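Ops channel
N.P.: pipeline sanity check, posting one input/output pair.
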């Protein structure tokens, strides 16, 4: 990127962002002597600060600017839809602001600041091999470090008997365990083959293989997710039963069971991680439904696992999902519902608490016109949120 330093054109520097964030146009070199107020003002005006002091001081400054940004947040809206839109706008504003504090990298991912941690392995996993010395956002680096810790430790999945799934950078971690439990407990249709569409970490493919499916094909359009799922399948000794493929939705052929846990909110993703949450115009959801009849074996089932948060926020009509199911030539065989267990579901301070407090996650068992069972208007089964 071309950059300026303290008002003078200085030349170029390599810009690193695993999230694809555009580089800033104007950079000023700063050290420990800058005040929080001055830093906040300059960052809010669009000036990036290249830190030259010690690393812990940079983290403290970022936290202090973040607290100021929190106090400047928008007031809460009245309707759930307005609350969501204001919340997303505030998140974007905060991300832009805090992304303006930069740190330097040497050509081996070393940070040439006093008391800086070793981040080479974390950066290598997120960015790949270094292309040379450069600069990047401290806020993004903290995300890279946190993701590396998740990847190293893994996430315990109770239905796997304590087995762990190791998420990679940019791949959504399976911390919302209710959807995993739904797949682990639902009655399997006859047959030995399954597709897992949008596999992410591969957790649902692993659960299905452990439940006895002899051949599972997991797909994802994101190369990071494909590598992540392959890593997890191999770690758990299931590489002969689960094939992970880079594909846009369905693989070739048909299966007795096709599972999909698509992003649950209509909206534009801003980062790779957002792609697990936001689905522009519900395109993935609609494509899954319309393609499902063409990939099911006779008598097979499609399992759609989806939160109703979009309906509660007014982002999707109350009957829109069932209308789309019917329009695709599918029948609802049954629906199992559970409450989410993530902390925000019970946090009154969350900006979306009004909608989250009533949120449910459903497993919709879908069949084609010739599949036994009937369309149901409501819940025909329920699951508790009992697993811890």
């Amino acid at each position: 990127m071309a950059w300026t330093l303290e008002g003078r054109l200085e030349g170029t520097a390599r810009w690193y962002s695993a999230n694809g964030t555009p580089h800033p146009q104007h950079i000023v070199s700063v050290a420990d002597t800058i005040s929080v107020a001055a830093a906040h003002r300059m960052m809010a005006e669009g000036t990036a600060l290249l830190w030259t002091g010690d690393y812990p001081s940079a983290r403290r400054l970022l936290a202090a600017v973040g607290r100021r940004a929190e106090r400047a947040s928008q007031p809460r809206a009245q309707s759930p839809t307005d609350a969501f839109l204001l919340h997303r706008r505030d998140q974007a504003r905060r991300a832009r602001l805090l992304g303006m504090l930069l740190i330097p990298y040497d050509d081996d991912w070393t940070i040439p600041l006093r008391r800086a941690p070793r981040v080479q392995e974390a950066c290598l996993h997120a960015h790949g091999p270094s292309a040379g010395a450069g600069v990047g956002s401290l806020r993004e680096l903290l995300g890279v470090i946190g993701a590396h810790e998740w990847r190293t430790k893994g996430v315990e999945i109770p239905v796997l008997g304590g087995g762990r799934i190791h998420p990679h950078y940019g791949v959504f971690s399976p911390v919302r365990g209710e959807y995993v439990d739904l797949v682990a407990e639902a009655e399997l249709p006859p047959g030995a083959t399954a597709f897992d569409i949008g596999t992410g970490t591969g957790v649902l493919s692993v659960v299905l293989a452990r439940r006895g499916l002899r051949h599972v094909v997991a797909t994802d359009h994101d190369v990071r997710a494909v590598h992540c799922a392959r890593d997890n399948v191999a770690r758990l000794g299931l590489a002969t039963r689960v094939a992970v493929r880079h594909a846009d939705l369905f693989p070739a052929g048909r299966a007795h069971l096709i599972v999909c846990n698509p992003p649950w909110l209509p909206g534009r993703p801003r980062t790779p991680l957002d792609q697990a949450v936001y689905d522009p115009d519900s395109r993935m959801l609609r494509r899954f439904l319309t393609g499902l009849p063409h990939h099911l074996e006779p008598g097979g089932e499609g399992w759609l696992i989806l939160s109703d948060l979009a309906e509660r926020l007014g982002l999707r009509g109350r009957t829109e999902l069932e209308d789309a199911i019917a329009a695709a030539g599918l029948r609802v065989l049954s629906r199992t519902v559970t409450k989410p267990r993530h902390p925000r579901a019970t946090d009154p301070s969350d900006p979306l608490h009004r909608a989250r407090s009533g949120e449910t996650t459903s497993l919709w068992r879908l069949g084609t016109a010739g599949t036994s069972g009937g369309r149901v208007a409501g819940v025909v089964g329920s699951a508790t949120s009992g697993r811890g």
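N.P.: looks fine end to end. Residues 374-388 have pLDDT under 50 and may be disordered.
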